[in-house]
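Quick question: what would this complex look like in 3D?
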Amino acid sequence: MTARTIAAREGSGVVQVDAEVLGNTAVGAYRHLTLVTPGLPEIARPGQFVALSVGDGTSSMLLRRSFSIHRVSPAGTYGATTEIVVAAAGPGTQELTRLEAGESVSVIGPLGKGFPLPSQPVPCILVGGGYGSAPLFWLAEQLRERDCPVEIVLGAASADRLFGVVEARRVADGVTVTTDDGSAGTKGWVSDVLPDLIARTGAGVLYGCGPMGMLRSMSAIASDHGIVAQVAVEEAMACGVGICMTCVMPVADQHGTTKMVRSCLEGPVFRGDRVRWEAFDDGLCRVPADAVGAPKEVR
Amino acid sequence: MTALSPPSAVDMSVDLAGVRLPNPMMTASGCAANGREMHRFIDIAQLGAFVTKSVKAQPVSGRGTPRMAETPSGMLNSIGLQGPGVQAFVEEDLAWLHSIGARVVVSIAGSTASEFATVARTIVRSRYASAVAAIEVNISCPNVANRGLVFACDPASSHKVMTLVREEVPRGLPMLAKLSPDVTDIVGIADTVLKAGAHGLTMINTTLGVAIDVDRLRPHLVAATGGLSGPAIRPMAVRAVWQVAGAMRAGRIKTAPIVGVGGVRHGRDALELIAAGASAIQVGTAAFNDPTAPERVGRELETLIAERGFTRLSEVTGIAHERFVP
């Protein structure tokens, strides 16, 4: 099996390939997949994601699973590769974590908008929750190329659910680890250590990727300190490419107008202060009453 | 994914109530947004037609989330007809579709029969009307005047919508009625909308379902109910096309072209609907899995028809009725 390009229209900024699985290794509680993806690495940026299909054309699981890009390599020994980190959360991701080297998987990417990079060399703090940290190391390298001092904060429920602690030490100026159960680093949440770290480093930007609750609290902390948070959200997606309209969330634009926007197209990275976090509760997201086209109160 | 089909001599063109399409392949409304996103993967101007997301008169936010649940060989959705409203649709979406030379089937929706007519009027009088190949009337919308019962489930409501829209649509522009399978007698609804002036039928829309989140023990979707789509409903679509085409062939209802939709993922699925009586094919949920599906299925369908010794797609439409021995 070798990789095969299915779609790569000029100027589209995205490719669809039947990728070859080059490697699949365990990393703590997760699997690290390396995929041969011609045409993808050259156009990818940190914060963008890929959408993988589960099984072949006979699979009963039709919806694509989206993963932020951990790393890309345009011209390695095996050609262009894309790396992702997968947690076996359900039947679809379980099937993906069982892929063996040499097998084929359909990959679409790069998708969405990546992390915007500061034009000035400001100190940055990169915050990853669980395997949400996957894109941060690549981001850290790009920030340091711009002379931005980089701190990385990794948080998880327990030590085995941290991802990339060793890699973080290699690419960042400082690394802080938190776990809910205290099995590694500081016992507690990333939000417990962020205020002191912002004060100590004089950070101008927070970058985050992980669970919605974590992104919400780091957005609040950024606002408290008068700095910007750029957060990569995790919304359930059916397609990843902008045609299913299922991954929407309420986000305000620069004029303060809230719309239900597709996180796969306008995100996954949003400015933390633009997301209408109060609309999210108990696994649901309601349409804010002031959103464009919101339902009128009946009776 | 299949290999490229060999060159074949099959005439895949379709006469859709007087409008000639070079091939039978269409997107399905609500499964391809308004074109730009899918155009990154395939040239949508090469499709028989591009079917837009249903558009209403005013902007609609749609529902909150979760709006979607994966189910075996399918999915439930309750998007809630999210859209920019017909004015912005014309200026941004229809204008773009016109600019790339796409043949467009505009899907229209409304909460009242007169809203459908307003939307239709805005479309056909717009400066981009020349791109419009047909109007598809999505009567599977809740009717506010009838306690939210969808128009398509009530013959009188369906008749009223089609009658009002017909008054707005110029001669020569086909008006398709998109039917819901959630009725006892789909032939009866088909008869009603054809008598009200529909030039063709699109069958089927999604069928209603509920998924329960077994961890939270509550409905998975924020709206509780959602529309089931995907290969799981394909036999329902084939059945609906079979029954309605059968009634047409028997002279029980007026004859009109049928656009088959429901669970088409591969060429053989499209061929089922064609053989049951469809003249054209829409690909919906499968595009979420493979955004090239509307184009790929067309290639696969052409190969299958050639392999079976036919030279024209139209020879295969409804052929299963001829070969059926009761």
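Answer marked as accepted. The first strand of chain B starts at residue 14 and ends at 16.
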